[in-house]
Specification:
By secondary structure, the chain is of the alpha/beta class. The protein has 14 helices and ten strands. The protein has helices spanning 3-15, 36-48, 64-69, 97-109, 112-120, 123-130, 132-148, 167-183, 188-201, 215-230, 250-254, 261-270, 278-306, 323-338, and strands at 25-30, 53-58, 79-84, 88-94, 150-151, 154-155, 159-163, 205-211, 235-243, 312-316. The strands form two sheets. The chain has an eight-stranded mixed β-sheet, sandwiched between helices. Strands 5-6 form a two-stranded antiparallel ribbon. Helix 10 links the parallel strand 8 and strand 9. The longest helix has 29 residues, at 278-306. The chain is elongated, with a radius of gyration of 24 Å. 35% of the residues are buried. The structure holds adenosine-5'-triphosphate and magnesium ion.
């Protein structure tokens, strides 16, 4: 192999994505509070490892990503928030509908000053608050544009990860351009809507659902999945977040008293605590019972998720969340998805 060939091979290796091959837009949804923002951040880190450029977008104006990565509030402009092994980087952007409106007006009609005038009369407020559908068109449009963006023929981003609206709203949110596309018959808006839908429906997109092993989030995952599939949006994986580490044998789990008091006392003595109070022994026994109940509930809910036949990515409940924890979750994702 001569030198130019080698260079080309190295470049390709860089561009090739080992996790979810071919996917360039990862949409992370789930029930509120299940860890969408955390999983989106960890996923972005996992995708960036090994030298990839990943854009992490936020669309709800909540500054969740800035909090997660412990950086100042994100501007509309792209901001690098993390670097990974192998020269990879995560760049974040808070996509704001008002900024996106101004960008569109400028792009399609070349009326930047008109944009300022529009803002003065409150037209943008009208458009973005009174017509939530339009707001979603702008947010998904901007995201789609980032996915397609190229410089000198190459994609600017190896992957785009979206910290998306919750499961209850995700299908309408992603499918909004379908409605626009059928309303506007010709012109720039029609073209834009159609190209966004082309990205959303293609194998380049994966919609991931985050859940906990609890009844309500699992039910929401099952319902959300059916909704996404009904309109032909591509589902990726289910991220099962904040899982309890099982500490007891199957036999102990099945017992009404999983860790009897004699055992707890013996354990305490072995640990050098010889004069333990009855209240302590009792509290530890109760903790074991609670743990057994929790594990059994998680196993039941896991069985419901396994029946869906969608790949599951298991993430542990960490003792606390900081940047170190986020990298730990990223590694866990990589280990499981690369298999
Ligand atoms: N694996 C984990 N281990 C420990 N704590 C976690 C884990 N995942 C998320 N958390 C914590 O759970 C809380 C909720 O997470 P996060 O903000 O990511 O959820 P969300 O789904 O984005 O919430 P919202 O619906 O409000 O946007 C946060 O305090 C976060 O630090
Ligand atoms: Mg969030």
């Amino acid at each position: 192999m001569n030198l130019p060939d080698l260079r080309e091979a190295t470049r390709l290796q860089h561009v090739e994505n080992q996790l979810w091959p071919g996917v360039r837009l990862h949409v992370v949804t789930g029930k509120g509070g299940t860890g969408k923002t955390t999983v989106a951040g960890a996923l972005a880190l996992a995708l960036a490892a090994g030298g990839h450029r990943v854009l992490l977008v936020e669309v709800e104006g909540r500054q969740g990503l800035a909090q997660l990565f412990d950086v100042p509030p994100l501007p509309y402009a792209e901001t690098r928030i993390a670097v990974t092994a192998g020269g990879g980087e995560v760049v974040a952007q808070a996509i704001d509908p008002e900024q996106a409106v101004l960008e569109y007006l400028q792009m399609f009609y070349n009326i930047k000053r008109g944009g300022t005038a529009l803002r003065k009369i409150g037209a943008i407020d009208f458009a973005t608050t009174i017509a939530p559908g339009l707001r979603d068109v702008l947010l998904t449009g901007k995201t789609g544009e980032q996915v397609r963006r190229r410089v000198k023929g190459s994609h600017v981003w190896d992957a785009v990860v979206m910290d998306a609206p919750p499961t209850g709203r995700i299908t309408r949110f992603l499918n909004v351009n379908e409605e626009v596309g059928s309303l506007a018959r010709i012109g720039p808006i029609k073209n834009q809507a159609d190209s966004v839908m082309r990205v959303m429906r293609s194998t380049e997109t994966a919609v991931h659902l985050v859940t906990l092993l609890e009844e309500m989030p699992v039910q929401e995952t099952i319902d959300g999945l059916a909704e996404l599939q009904a309109v032909g949006l591509p589902v990726g994986s289910v991220f099962v977040n904040m899982q309890t580490t099982e500490e007891l044998s199957d036999e102990a789990l099945g017992s009404s008293d999983p860790v009897p008091q004699e055992l707890i006392r013996a354990g305490l003595i072995a640990a050098g605590i010889t004069h333990s109070k009855a209240a302590l022994v009792q509290a530890l026994g109760q903790e074991a019972k609670d743990h057994a109940t929790r594990v059994q509930l998680e196993r039941r809910e896991r069985a419901r998720l396994e029946a869906l036949e969608i790949p599951l990515v298991n993430l542990p409940l960490l003792a606390g969340m900081d940047l170190g924890g986020l990298f730990e979750l990223a590694e866990t994702i990589t280990e499981q998805v690369q298999k």
